[in-house]
């Protein structure tokens, strides 16, 4: 009876505000709890909590036995109370992962909150909030694909992230302006659980570099340092904007990536298999997912500006091996693509429709004007 009473009390606690989603990644219907922290969490996050037993003691809400003191502790705490405590000094630029994000981001977020208490003590945020950071990252070579140790320097004052091919080099190999910088974790693509893809604009074309660090905290600190630098840059560039307006612009995950076939502008040559990345309004295609530069980029505007996406290919189309076609209509021309499966086709069409249904921002008209369609 006592066991049943405890379980019923815990299930009732899950109905309280804040407890219906995981305290750490917002996954719905958490079924686990940390009875030392007083929070309700999902199965995935419970696995991370188990790795820090000195901080967090985990139990299943429905399957494990609970004593009255533990249930009382959960009742007097809960997700909202823990958030007020452990996220009290969370900087607006710090990336809060969700259940859709990679394991590394979720693990470091949980460790930062409860183990290192970075958002209770502001001085512990120095590695990513100081406006300057330097260190060594393993960087993939553009031509040979080998990862080599390279020195990176991020400086808000100079408005740039730089890397050097030699430790004593006076001149950097590349200068990436904070204004045009993006970083996104890509463990599967890079083949490393700590793999980070950094992109920047070079002559209005996107350049990719792929890096990692053996230490998970180190690479996540780099990621948040880049976000902090972009946050402070945007605060100056848009003085009237609120944090809520600026935070979504600090870094972006790709809307979709994957293989499709494409043909050239005359639509007479054969279709070639390419890796495609939808980055905001830029649809880029690469021969290999880890190429430094795209073979070409297509700007996807809005429906008000005569952009549309159609299922299928024109009847006269030839040369595609894959049968599930997509036609993108722009003011200048049509782009023809083919997907391997029906599911792929529907996912790409949904992604394109989301972009096309969004009205263009003033700065996007400038991007469209500069954009060179590369065949």
UniProtKB/TrEMBL annotation:
It is found in: Cytoplasm. Residues 130-231, 253-357 form the PH domain. The keyword Metal-binding applies. The keyword Repeat applies. It holds the Pfam family PH. GO terms for molecular function: GTPase activator activity; phosphatidylinositol bisphosphate binding; phosphatidylinositol-3,4,5-trisphosphate binding; zinc ion binding. This is Arf-GAP with dual PH domain-containing protein 1. It comes from Patagioenas fasciata monilis. The lineage of its organism: Eukaryota, Metazoa, Chordata, Craniata, Vertebrata. The gene is ADAP1.
